[in-house]
Amino acid sequence: MLALAQEVLSTPRNPRQEVQALQDTIYVVGGKWRLPIINSLCNGNKRFRDIERSIPGITTRMLSRELKEMEANQLIKRTVTPDTPVLVEYTPTDYCHSFGSIILEMIRWGKAHSEHLKKAAD
């Protein structure tokens, strides 16, 4: 852990730069829906309705807005195939996949946190 901290953090420390990096990350992947959308895409859902069905509680409007933002941030690629009917697919970019280990670590932490709370309640 110390080695990772030394690799990531500035020497000497630059708190302003570190806070800006955290804010940039939260801006790109923050909010209630972006990580579940990334997770859905990485689990093989490519079509709008499949993504929507895989995320309980998300509205059509919200999914549409989030997908547009994610495309603008180069996390996903939108491909339109002009068949009849028109086929629209969303796929995670390599840039999005670079975030994969962080998402897995967040899932791991979330599971451990849940267990921690259960033990504290006993």
TrEMBL record:
<keyword id="KW-0805">Transcription regulation</keyword>
<protein>
    <submittedName>
        <fullName>Transcriptional regulator</fullName>
    </submittedName>
</protein>
<keyword id="KW-0238">DNA-binding</keyword>
<dbReference type="InterPro" id="IPR036388">
    <property type="entry name" value="WH-like_DNA-bd_sf"/>
</dbReference>
<keyword id="KW-0804">Transcription</keyword>
<feature type="domain" description="HTH hxlR-type">
    <location>
        <begin position="14"/>
        <end position="118"/>
    </location>
</feature>
<dbReference type="Pfam" id="PF01638">
    <property type="entry name" value="HxlR"/>
</dbReference>
<dbReference type="GO" id="GO:0003677">
    <property type="term" value="F:DNA binding"/>
</dbReference>
<dbReference type="InterPro" id="IPR036390">
    <property type="entry name" value="WH_DNA-bd_sf"/>
</dbReference>
<dbReference type="InterPro" id="IPR002577">
    <property type="entry name" value="HTH_HxlR"/>
</dbReference>
